[in-house]
Amino acid sequence: MLILVFLLLILIFFRKWLLKLFRLLYLSSKYGKFSHEFISYFKENNLVSPYNTCIKDQITSHFLIFNKQINHTDEFQTEIPIDFDGIPFMVTSKNLIQRKGNPDCINVATLSDFKFMVMGYSEFMLDLKMKAMFFFLDDHFIMGEFSFSEGKSAQSAKMIETISSKYLNGNPIGKEFFFLKDKDGNQLNFENNGFTISIKYLFRGDHTTNMILSGSYSNGDNLSEKSLLVLRNEELLDRL
Q1: Looking at residues 138-163, what average pLDDT do you find?
Q2: Is the dihedral of CA 30, 32, 33, 39 positive or negative?
Q3: Nearest CA to 110 among 33, 41, 196, 199?
Q4: What is the CA radius of gyration of the chain?
Q5: Is 222 exposed, middle or buried (0-12, 13-18, 19+ CB in 10 A)?
Q6: Which pLDDT belongs to residue 76?
Q7: How far apart are CA 170 and CA 211, in angstroms?
């Protein structure tokens, strides 16, 4: 009898937490513990995420560089298809995990029903610690980024030389900020701002994705207006 009373008291006082626990177990079972649905539940219910975050700024801010007007002197054309880390564009997050293992960090955000997610892996390149990040839109891989916390000029020059060798037959680039574009429209952006080095690889082969990233996709909502408010909230959630 005492045991039943004790269990009843637990249900009364901890029912909210038990409901959240059961909900998490359900989401993990149905979608997976690295899914957008599972991780979003922590943010939506003010719970501490079990994963480290990959970035402190807004996910969509990493795409903005490709939406700005490009000075043609900073863009080079290549006949070689642009790819990222040997992972095909448009694969799912589960496929990425099958190829590379569990990620070291994850960010998620929702914007006008579009689900963004970043999965990151801590690695080394040229003896520099870096993060290889995979950006997903509605669980399709659309952009990769190598991010180096130290923007050393010697390593930067070596990276540019390697990119030139792969995509431009070794022709000198002579810049530490430039774009590449292949025949399918896929883009690469290299930037060394003196503090960090970033190399982004954007897939341009899906019309709907291009429209969403440019802010011109119409699904009955004003994406541009709503994005400002939603992204401010996402940034606070990620930082606090």
Answers
A1: 88
A2: negative
A3: 41
A4: 21
A5: exposed
A6: 92
A7: 34
Written as six digits, the tokens of 100 are 């590379």
Amino acid at site 3: I
Residues 141 and 118: their CA atoms lie apart, in Å, by 9
Token match 């940034």: residue? 235
Q: What is the 3-state secondary structure (H, E, C) of 87-156?
A: ECCCCCHHHHHHHHCCCCEEEEEEECCEEEEEEEEEEEECCEEEEEEEEEECCEEEEEEEEECCCCHHHH
What are the tens digits of pLDDT across the range 28-50? 667 778 888 888 877 777 777 88
SS3 of 69-96: the string is CCCHHHEEECCCCCCECCECCCCCHHHH
pLDDT (mean) for 126-152: 90
Among 134, 149, 138, 162, which Cα is nearest to 197's? Answer: 149
H helix count then E strand count, the chain: 6, 8
